[in-house]
Every structure is written in structure tokens, then in C-alpha cells.
Amino acid sequence: MPRPSRAFDTTTRLRPNDQSLDDQYGEPENFLEISVGMPVIRKDRNGRYADYEIECFTNIPLFKLKHSSVRRRYSDFEWLRDMLTKESERVNIPPLPGKVLFNRFDKDVLKSRHENLQRFLQIVAGHPLLQTGSKVLIPFIQDPTFNRKTYEM
What string of H, E and C letters represents the secondary structure of 55-69? Predict the structure, then answer.
């Protein structure tokens, strides 16, 4: 008859690592928080449009600013998606919420679009290949003087 194992009799309890409060609750090594705010309805000579605030908090070295806040229109997001698709064939770029033809300034329509734009931007901004390989992603998120023509291919 086999003898019962005594492995548990000789083990000792692992000692927890001594961590400082900074280690336990400090800033993570690499973090990226991006939010797309509710839109603001504006008017220009062509009519009304909505723009969205993009706020970014990060300590990733590729980003020039630790905190930034810019405003972008839906058409800017369309342009960004097109450029990311052209820039990187290895990454599947998620779709944007569809164009809205009627009631586009309806509160529920704007809320849904805002949520979907945030989801889109969190996915693409968090992708390591896009962070390192895209010429347009970080300026789109952080540069308040961003101009599409500067980045046209």
C-alpha cells in the first residue's frame, strides 16, 4: 500500500511582499483613460453640428501630454477611422456608429452616438500597434490645433 504524501507537513506559509502605500495605491505603470463627452450643439455658416470632447489621461511615453482635452466632430471620427484603416492593414479597425439622417440632434440619438464613439476610441487608442504605428491617432486625441490636411496621405 502506498504511503500517504507528507508534502503539506513540510511546507511553510508564503510571506507577503512588503509593499509601500505608493506601490499598492500609486499610479499604474502604464495607463490610458479616454472619455468622449456628451456633445455640444454648435452653429456655423453651414448650419448646426455636434462636437464631442475627448479627454485623455495617460502616462504612456508615446503620448506627449499626460492630460489633454480636445473637441472633434463626427466627421473627424470618420476621417480617423479611414486613416487608421489605410495606415495599418494588420489591425481590424472597429466600425463607427452609423450616420443619422433624421432627428440627429435628438437627445437619445446623441447619447447613443456618444457612447459608441467612446467605445470606438477606447478600442483604437488602447491597441499597441496603433499607438506605435499610427501617425494620426495620438495627434487626433491630444492636439487642439489638429488639422486633417496635415496628415492626408
Answer: EEEECCCCCCCCEEE
128, 90 contact by CB (below 8 A): no
This prediction's pTM: 0.80
> SS3 of 54, please?
strand
What are 81-139's pLDDT values in tens digits?
A: 999 999 988 899 999 998 888 888 999 999 999 999 999 999 999 999 999 889 999 99
A 10 A CB-CB count for 146 gives: 17
Alpha-carbon distance of 153 to 66, in angstroms, equals 28
Contact between 78 and 96 under an 8 Å Cβ cutoff? The reply is yes
Backbone angles phi, psi at 37, to 5 degrees: -80, 165
Q: Give the 3-state secondary structure of residue 135.
A: coil
